[in-house]
């Protein structure tokens, strides 16, 4: 927990026996929002480090997106080798619901790795419940649309451009489809070899994960997990922009990328399409098309930070710092 976090609660679930946790980084601009992640971790410390890092990034994401919410995140941590059968999963979700209730609305969950819209029905404060239940459903497509807005602002048309996509998951699949439709030459990698066939069917080339970053390309799209890029990571693309959270191992990697002539669009700017859309639908009650139009604001933010002359990360941090002094309601 760093000096800026407002709250971290870690508890063993009464029903499941699994560690369950909520981190609230900031409520300065409004209640903390962030996804609930359900996955295996090597140990408890790794899960706590993840929830703290991700909740901090959510504060920046909300501020950069100009939405009146703060940063939070939650994790249900599966110890190595745990088999998550339906009974254990349900017990874990109900334990997590109890913990969220204790935050009394100061933390509002959403889906993340390992959870989905249906789980949100169990939580007392949550976004992205299924549309059939009155929520706005999965935010994967608007997240992909936000990445496209960032890409457009940074590089214009993708027609004829070489794009490498890391991670053909729910956001990656929308991205691959739309990029290929718009004439990009897309190369895909995924740690899951079963994604090879769907990638080929989309009309993309396939590359092994360990070779993906050095494939000559105009654009690299990280759409898998975080921690992809360190100081000594070799990247062939000129532009890196994608939905994955916490792409850099540490913030100062942004300077290294800038020194190498690689433009990195901060992940907390490029990945905000989902929250912008969800808040537009569920808080502002906008219809689908109007909510998607809000996602396009990401293009303006990217243009603004690329115009400053500072590195994109420094420019985005300056924007976040300014927004943090003007709590909430900027829309
Ligand atoms: N879904 C959203 O609305 C949303 C919003 C904001 C940010 N994000 C972030 O975007 C990223 C993708 O989200 P998603 O919902 O598509 O996730 P997902 O779990 O559906 O897909 C992730 C994909 O990445 C692959 N992968 C995992 N590790 C990999 C590795 N080391 N190398 C190559 N491939 C690997 C997985 O096999 C999977 O196919 C995540 O970092 C997520 O936190 C998602």
Automatic annotation (TrEMBL):
Q: Tell me the protein's name.
A: Leucine dehydrogenase
Protein family according to the UniProt entry: Belongs to the Glu/Leu/Phe/Val dehydrogenases family.
Q: Does the keyword NAD apply?
A: yes
Reply yes or no: does the keyword Nucleotide-binding apply: yes
Q: Which InterPro entries match?
A: Aminoacid_DH-like_N_sf, Glu/Leu/Phe/Val/Trp_DH, Glu/Leu/Phe/Val/Trp_DH_C, Glu/Leu/Phe/Val/Trp_DH_dimer, Glu/Phe/Leu/Val/Trp_DH_bac/arc, NAD(P)-bd_dom_sf
For this protein's source organism, the top of the classification is: Bacteria, Bacillati, Actinomycetota, Actinomycetes, Pseudonocardiales
Question: What molecular functions are annotated in GO for this chain?
Answer: nucleotide binding; oxidoreductase activity, acting on the CH-NH2 group of donors, NAD or NADP as acceptor
Q: Name one Pfam family in it.
A: ELFV_dehydrog_N
Q: Which organism is it from?
A: Actinokineospora terrae
For the ligand (NAD(+)), the binding residues are: 167-172
């Amino acid at each position: 927990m760093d000096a800026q976090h407002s709250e971290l609660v870690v508890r063993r679930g009464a029903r499941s026996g699994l560690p369950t946790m909520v981190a609230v980084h900031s409520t300065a601009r409004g209640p903390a929002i962030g996804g609930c992640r359900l996955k295996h971790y090597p140990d408890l410390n790794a899960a706590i480090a993840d929830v703290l890092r991700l909740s901090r990034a959510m504060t920046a994401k909300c501020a950069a997106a100009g939405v009146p919410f703060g940063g939070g995140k939650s994790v249900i941590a599966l110890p190595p080798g745990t088999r998550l059968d339906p009974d254990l999963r349900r017990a874990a979700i109900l334990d997590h619901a109890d913990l969220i209730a204790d935050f009394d609305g100061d933390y509002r969950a959403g889906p993340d790795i390992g959870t989905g819209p249906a789980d949100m029905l169990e939580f007392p404060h949550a976004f992205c419940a299924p549309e059939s239940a009155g929520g706005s459903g999965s935010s994967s497509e608007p997240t992909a649309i936000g990445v496209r807005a960032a890409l457009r602002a940074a590089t214009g048309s993708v027609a004829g451009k070489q794009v490498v996509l890391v991670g053909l998951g729910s956001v990656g699949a929308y991205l691959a489809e739309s990029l290929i439709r718009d004439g990009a030459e897309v190369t895909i990698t995924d740690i899951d070899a079963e994604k090879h066939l769907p990638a080929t069917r989309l009309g993309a080339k396939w590359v092994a994960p360990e070779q993906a970053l050095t494939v000559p390309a105009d654009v690299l799209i990280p759409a898998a997990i975080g921690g992809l890029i360190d100081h000594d990571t070799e990247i062939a693309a000129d532009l890196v922009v994608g939905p994955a959270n916490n792409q850099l191992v540490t913030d100062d990697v942004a300077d290294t990328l800038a020194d190498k002539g690689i433009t990195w669009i901060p992940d907390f700017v490029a990945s905000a399409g989902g929250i912008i859309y969800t808040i537009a639908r569920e808080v502002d009650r906008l219809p689908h098309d109007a909510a998607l139009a809000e996602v396009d604001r990401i293009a303006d933010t990217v243009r603004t930070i690329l115009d400053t002359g500072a590195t994109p990360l420094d420019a985005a941090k300056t924007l976040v710092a300014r927004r943090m002094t003007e709590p909430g309601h900027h829309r």
